[in-house]
DNA sequence: ATGGTAGGACGCCTA
């Protein structure tokens, strides 16, 4: 029985509710992890998702900024909403669910973007981003015989050269600076996480999940970055059957600047 | 080399 997990930075769940319900109807993932919901919990459009078949919902939202939500067709159990850097930001939640006989601990992350100036000494937002990734080291790809871990979300870092349109031109641009890319890769390897998008599509093939709103023609210039990620513990990585980056969603009406990534697992 | 757009809330901060 297949198990599919999607992740999508939606940039306002209320404004883009029609896009989310369209996505759920067309692709029917078992679970969808949203980031940047920008919605307090009491205003979250849970009823619309329940009507679409996604009645199992965990949310961590706040007014105006950030916010994550995990929607599921299968029952889920909230494990934790962790307050990284003790700022009170809603940037993480984890749930446990049954994925066709396997137990999965699923983390949903929204890592700080980090501002424009890539110097932690003068830019507190960049300092916060580096501190956040450092604290993420506490989240490991735990697994045993019957349970596995999956980590998805907008990590706001494009770690590999093939994750950006121009490695050279972005080396000093926040999201692709060496201190960030090395920090994220070190955290991933230290936590024994596997980068499933890159196991499915190795470099040098380019993968982008985000294109700036500021481009005149995002598709023609195609100056994208891979900011959204799907990681897993080692014991479920061999069960990955497919990963799809839904590039077409960037061209939908009033789109998010990020597109969904859908991972499919099969347990034989 | 620079500035370009979008969302939330209605100033201007964040991305």
Mean pLDDT figure:
97
User: What is the straight-line distance between the termini?
Assistant: 8 Å
Helix content: 10-25%
| Neighbour order of strands in the largest sheet | 3-4-2-1-14-13
> By CATH's scheme, which homologous superfamily applies?
Endonuclease/exonuclease/phosphatase
Regarding CATH, which class?
A: Alpha Beta
Count of structural domains: 1
At CATH's second level, what is the architecture?
4-Layer Sandwich
Number of helices: 7
Order of helices and strands: EHEHEEEEEHEHHEHEHEEEE
Q: Unreliable segments (pLDDT under 50, ≥5 consecutive)? A: none
Beta-strand content: 25-35%
As a whole number of angstroms, the C-alpha radius of gyration is 17 Å
Query: If you consult CATH, what is the topology?
Result: Deoxyribonuclease I, Chain A
Largest sheet: 6 strands, mixed
Shape descriptor reads globular
Please provide the count of β strands: 14
